[in-house]
Amino acid sequence: MSDQPDPILAKPVDLCCLKGSIHTGEATGTIEEIEGVPTYVAKPNADTANGNVLLYFPDAFGLHINSFLMMDAFASCGYLVLGVDYFLGDAVTKYSKTPLSDPSFDFEAWKNRHLEATEEVAARWVKGVQSKFESLSGTKFACVGYCWGARFVCSQLSQGGICKVGAIAHPSFMKESHVVSIRAPLFLSAPNTDALFAPEQRNRTAELMTSGETPFSVQVFSHVGHGFASRAYLTKPYEKWAKEQCFKSFVEWFDLWLAEA
């Protein structure tokens, strides 16, 4: 084990990760299992399918209606989307839809229970995804992660990962080692003010990416908080716009670099 310090860029999940709105809508995907891990599968229409696979790493709310609708939207843009339940049915939403104000929910205990466990589940799941889909002619992998999912995107963009391009929104649990290992194009979207990902750390992330040759882009929105890209209040026009702009930017980034890969 290295004795070198590994400074934190995005802090561990905190109460801000429990804020936001639960959306409404009708999910169109299905739940399947890959290597024993529940997986939400959103399929594109045959006439718009681009032949590529998008790995979706959710926030602490796990696989629920917000992430279902987001994955369905990515599928409508041509991607076969696979969302991992690395909490194995034990996401925050199992306990409460209003965890921030629910005194019966022990967030710290939940966080500690899943920090390392999700690493093992995600690694097993990715291997299963690769085995199942990489043999398809011309298939390329992209990945997207929200909050808890950030470090998994970094891993899949590293030398040992399977993805050609990735995107992260409002990260948590992200260290310098995660960023310096990235070898494929990264898009990062964040609020200007975020208790977990302060401007100094955001600038440091850009500095680390600049020191290498890997393409990257950083998108910053004012007047939104941590979680805006996945749990925005859709009744607030600016929050809704920021969420949609983030989504649009991610899709354009994936399309650009997968065409080059």
From TrEMBL:
It comes from the Eukaryota. GO terms for molecular function: hydrolase activity. Residues 38-255 form the Dienelactone hydrolase domain. Pfam families: DLH (PF01738). PANTHER family: DIENELACTONE HYDROLASE (PTHR17630), PROTEIN AIM2 (PTHR17630:SF44). This is Dienelactone hydrolase domain-containing protein. It comes from Curvularia kusanoi. The lineage of its organism: Eukaryota, Fungi, Dikarya, Ascomycota, Pezizomycotina.
